[in-house]
Write a structure and sequence with these properties.
Among the domains are: about 80 residues, T-fold (Orthogonal Bundle); about 130 residues, ApbE-like domains (T-fold). The chain contains 9 helices and 15 strands. Strands 1-5-6-9-12-13-14 form a 7-stranded antiparallel β-sheet. Strands 2-4-3 form a 3-stranded antiparallel β-sheet.
Length: about 325
């Protein structure tokens, strides 16, 4: 999944704890094999290779995930859209390369969640348009932490923290204290903008600092940041927000909403989150201001600190 995996848990038996950690890692590798865009034998690659020509039957787990993705596309007004991959695949963020304007505009025609067709009768998926692609990078990690957490819970483990990059799921508390997750300062890797005390929930952070590059100003064009979050409407990286953190009851919801809020912006994004039961959000906008949903302020679940007073990271899980 192109990210690091971490897990912490408490168990009375060290051997059982080690076995549980191995089960978590095995599940992460299984999901990576299923949804990796970099593996030619993955289910995702098979869909992208065939679905524009014919319906592709998929296993139940894959179909259910695609159906959830469509639900979030509908909920967000298209701000969350796994067909963004028609544009996303044209970028090489490590090399600092992006498509030209003409290529970008041509690829935009292949984006559109409405053209991803799912047939529940035979669990098949097809694309209405040639050139369409899907990518579950903004969704599958939430699925992974949900699955891993369910595996732990089935083993009787009641206190755990599982993380796949910016996506985490915590089970219970940390033996009498809440798990504390630090939201990193988007412009200072050693700084923190908020500390969230968490119990039994999921959290996802999307930031423009994760994968991207800066393009210097040229004649007639201002400098801009290109990053891995793509606005499906424009094919470009949203620039009104630096980071979004969403808390929700499950990892899929948290991850999908974090991407949707990033695209929709502060006002529309927070309004969207407040329509989802059990969800809250913290947003750092492009001016460095901190915003949060009413639920966080009312419940006191976040202790936000000023961006200009970066708190040194002390080993707590961070996003």
């Amino acid at each position: 999944m192109g990210t690091s995996i971490q897990a912490q848990l408490w168990h009375e038996d060290a051997a059982a704890a080690e076995e549980a950690l191995c089960a978590v890692m095995a599940e992460m590798h299984r999901i990576d094999r299923l949804f990796s865009p970099h593996r030619s034998d993955s289910e995702l690659s098979r869909i992208n290779a065939l679905a524009a020509r014919e319906p592709v039957q998929v296993r139940g787990e894959v179909f259910a995930l695609l159906a959830r993705a469509q639900q979030f596309s509908r909920l967000s007004g298209g701000a969350f859209d796994i067909t963004f991959a028609a544009v996303g695949c044209l970028f090489d963020y490590r090399a600092g390369k992006r498509p030209g304007d003409a290529e970008l505009q041509a690829a935009r025609k292949h984006i559109g969640w409405q053209h991803l067709r799912l047939d529940a009768r035979d669990r098949s998926v097809r694309f209405d348009r040639p050139g369409m692609r899907i990518d579950l990078g903004g969704f599958a990690k939430g699925h992974a932490v949900d699955n891993a957490s369910a595996l732990l819970r089935a083993r009787g483990i009641a206190h755990a923290h599982v993380a796949a990059g910016g996506d985490s799921r915590v089970l219970g508390d940390r033996r009498g204290e809440p798990w504390t997750v630090a939201i990193r300062h988007p412009r200072d890797p050693a700084g923190v903008v908020a500390i969230l005390p968490l119990v039994d929930c999921a959290i996802s952070t999307s930031g423009d600092y994760e994968r991207g590059f800066d393009e210097p100003a040229t004649a007639g064009q201002a400098a801009r940041r290109w990053h891995h979050i793509v606005d499906p409407q424009t094919g470009r990286s949203p620039d009104a927000v630096h980071s979004v953190t969403v808390l929700a009851d499950d990892g899929l919801t948290a991850e999908a909403l974090s991407k949707a809020v990033f695209v929709r912006g502060v006002a529309e994004g927070l309004s969207l989150v407040e329509t989802v039961a059990g969800a809250d959000a913290v947003v750092v906008d492009a001016q460095g201001r901190l915003h949060a949903t009413r639920g966080l302020a009312d419940l006191g679940r976040a202790s936000a600190v000023a961006l200009d007073a970066a708190v040194a990271f002390d080993g707590r899980p961070s996003h």
